[in-house]
């Protein structure tokens, strides 16, 4: 119903506006006496705008001096027609003898519709928000501190807000829908990367992409686009909370794959909240190992059998699922052995009148009705929106000196509808694009970061995707990654942030030619 209302509202506004104009239109001689209307002023074409500031930060005990450039860059057609105004923040380390040889990382978030603030002031940038963590959140107003886990000591960084996110917007007169789609998004972000690298003489630098969530979908798409369109070969791609094959995450009728691939994350979250039996509760890795083996073994067989599964075997599977999820066998049986995310989040802690988070299962929330079938909201998203949005708005205008009266779009629905061509009537799957890029550029390496408590992009689904990449055995060693005891934004967990920095620094250094 909500989607239908969104479609009807513009039509209603147009109809009402037209009626008002006709009602006010003078008739006869009075109409002739009406003074001629002034011609409408043409909207001013967007122009590049940037502000440079000098800073320093301590990373790993060492002082790193850097220049920050916050600005907008206008994307144009070859005839000079403005198409979009892209907001970015670039961090370049000072005192580098040959900047063209220093690694450069282009970073963005996902959604689609998310600005780059999450990776920017949460994980990779030189400054980060201090918000606390699950069970120990800090109240507003929030503090901004140096990020000792920034990757700025090993690579320069450019944070990109795709069109309609952050402060990025279409040029006046340009339809925003031309940027809102799987291919359209890749093209506009890729065009920005080419233009920025050209203007800043960074074609000679080792180049990396870093994306989170749908940003990993974008990064995989860019791996092919940059090679094929511009001949720009990358050294590495960092995928944080990866989703390349959407079949692994869509709970559609007839698609049993997500039920298997989400199970180990259910187990991990149940372990965190102490809902597993004693023999599993003592060791997270033991619990996960048993869950993974069951998921692709007995559970897969049971789901494949469907209605032909014998009653006794069905009861046995329900009991084993109960052991691995903390949910009752009766509830699992009534759910037809298939537990969707919302049901798990609502049911796991129902006796305590609490729900668990989708982005991060460590966070808990309170619903108006504890007997419902799905949570009222995602408590993990609610916990981070306030700190991150307040910080990015304060930081950009305060420390970076970039001024804009536009609202910073941190996670907008304005990118809907999203064009999924050429994947209509099938699941989006950009894994093949990444495989081709890695095959044609045999030096390209990929890092995959996975959170144990992430129900948006589960770690076992990422494992499944990369185990089915079809990559030649000689290139398998180019895949690496890390696991973190946190969720989708694993960097909100201090220990995971420190581990992520160590893992990424090692990956970047190993991917740069000696």
Give me some keywords for this one.
disordered N terminus; Rossmann fold; 2 domains; two-stranded antiparallel ribbon; globular; 514 residues; 16 strands; 15 helices; 10-stranded mixed sheet; alpha/beta
Largest sheet: 10 strands, mixed
Tell me the CATH architecture of the largest domain. Answer: 3-Layer(aba) Sandwich
Instruction: State which percent range the strand residues make up.
Output: 15-25%
Query: How confident is the prediction overall: mean pLDDT?
Result: 91
Radius of gyration: 25 Å
Annotated CATH homologous superfamily of the largest domain: Alpha/Beta hydrolase fold, catalytic domain
Q: What's the CATH first level of the largest domain?
A: Alpha Beta
Classification by helices and strands = alpha/beta
By CATH, the topology of the largest domain is: Rossmann fold
Fraction in helix: 25-40%
Identify the overall geometry: globular
Measured between the Cα atoms of the first and last residue, the distance is 58 Å
- The total count of strands amounts to 16
Low-confidence stretches are 1-35
Q: Domains counted in the coordinates: how many?
A: 2
What is the helix tally?
Answer: 15
């Amino acid at each position: 119903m909500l989607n239908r209302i969104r479609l009807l509202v513009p039509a209603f506004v147009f109809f009402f506006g037209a009626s008002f104009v006709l009602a006010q239109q003078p008739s006869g001689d009075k109409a002739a006496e009406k003074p001629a209307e002034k011609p409408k002023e043409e909207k001013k074409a967007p122009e590049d705008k940037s502000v440079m500031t000098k800073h320093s930060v301590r990373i790993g005990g060492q002082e790193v001096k850097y220049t920050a450039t916050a600005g907008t860059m206008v994307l144009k057609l070859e005839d000079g027609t403005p198409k979009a105004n892209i907001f970015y923040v670039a961090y370049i380390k000072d005192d580098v003898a040959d900047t063209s040889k220093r690694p450069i990382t282009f970073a963005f978030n996902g959604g689609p519709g998310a600005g780059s603030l999450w990776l920017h002031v949460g994980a990779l940038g030189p400054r980060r928000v201090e918000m606390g963590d699950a069970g120990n959140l800090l109240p507003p107003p929030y503090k901004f501190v140096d990020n000792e886990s920034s990757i700025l000591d090993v690579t320069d960084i450019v944070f990109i807000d795709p069109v309609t996110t952050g402060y990025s917007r279409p040029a006046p007169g340009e339809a925003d829908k031309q940027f809102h789609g799987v291919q359209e998004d890749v093209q506009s972000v890729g065009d920005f990367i080419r233009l920025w690298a050209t203007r800043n003489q960074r074609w000679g630098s080792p180049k990396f992409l870093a994306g989170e969530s749908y940003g990993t979908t974008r990064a995989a798409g860019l791996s092919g686009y940059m090679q094929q369109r511009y001949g720009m070969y990358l050294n590495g791609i960092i995928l944080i909370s990866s989703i390349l094959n959407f079949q692994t995450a869509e709970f559609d009728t007839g698609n049993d794959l997500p039920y298997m691939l989400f199970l180990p994350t259910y187990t991990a979250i149940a372990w965190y909240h102490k809902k597993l039996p004693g023999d599993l509760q003592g060791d997270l890795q033991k619990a996960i190992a048993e869950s993974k083996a069951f998921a692709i073994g007995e559970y897969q067989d049971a789901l494949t059998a469907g209605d032909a599964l014998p009653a006794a075997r069905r009861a046995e599977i329900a009991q084993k699922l109960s052991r691995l999820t903390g949910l009752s066998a009766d509830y699992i049986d009534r759910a037809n052995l298939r537990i969707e995310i919302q049901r798990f989040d609502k049911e796991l802690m129902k006796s305590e009148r609490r729900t668990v988070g989708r982005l991060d299962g460590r966070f808990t929330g309170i619903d108006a009705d504890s007997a419902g079938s799905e949570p009222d909201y995602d408590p993990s998203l609610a916990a981070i929106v306030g700190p991150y949005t307040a910080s990015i708005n304060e930081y950009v205008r305060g420390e970076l000196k970039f001024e804009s009266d536009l609202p910073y779009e941190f996670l907008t629905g304005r990118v809907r509808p999203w064009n999924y061509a050429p994947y209509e009537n099938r699941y989006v799957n950009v894994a093949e694009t990444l495989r081709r890029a890695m095959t044609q550029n045999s030096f390209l390496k990929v890092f995959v970061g996975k959170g144990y408590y992430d129900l948006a992009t589960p770690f076992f689904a990422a494992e499944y995707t990369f185990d089915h990449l079809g990559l030649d055995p000689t290139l398998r060693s180019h895949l690496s990654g890390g696991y973190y005891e946190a969720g989708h934004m694993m960097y909100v967990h201090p220990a995971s942030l420190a581990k992520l920095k160590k893992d990424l620094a090692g990956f970047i250094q190993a991917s740069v030619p000696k």
